[in-house]
Amino acid sequence: MQIDIGITEKDRKKIAEGLSKLLADTYTLYLKTHNFHWNVTGPMFNTLHLMFEAQYNELALAVDLVAERIRSLGFPAPGTYSEYAKLSSIPEPKGVPKAEKMIEELVAGQEAVVRTARAIFPAAEKARDEATADLLTQRIQLHEKTAWMLRSLLEK
């Protein structure tokens, strides 16, 4: 059945492509955060273990929201590691870094998600896609706040 939501197929496709990159970044950050939750050690273990858990739980919910928006626009959501590896701007960690390096990598990951989300805005605004713009605004706000909180742990 044809989709008739007031956004052209061409615009929906462009937005869905951007959201696919956001989904890949979000899922990759989820995996990295969960990995660090399992493997963190050191004097801040309990604080970081719990903080990372809260962050990966939020990211797990976020991937569903982003994927469902892609589907609402009429396109398949990417859902494999190989697709995410091609689409994501977030590198995988090498080995198991020390706690401070984990925090630095997660700050970089949070900021990468913000940049990816921000890059979709022009297409969403041009198409008057308020639903996607709202999703992007919420994601940007949350990732900027999380990056700030993580950066605060690095201050001497």
From TrEMBL:
Annotated GO molecular function terms are: DNA binding; ferric iron binding; oxidoreductase activity, acting on metal ions
Give yes or no: UniProt keyword DNA-binding: yes
Q: Which Pfam families match?
A: Ferritin
Task: Give the keywords, sorted.
Answer: DNA-binding
Can you give the residue ranges of the Ferritin/DPS domain? 17-156
Q: Which domain of life is it from?
A: Bacteria
Q: Which family does it belong to?
A: Belongs to the Dps family.
Q: What is this protein called?
A: Starvation-inducible DNA-binding protein
Source taxonomy: Bacteria, Pseudomonadati, Pseudomonadota, Betaproteobacteria, Rhodocyclales
Gene symbol here is: dps
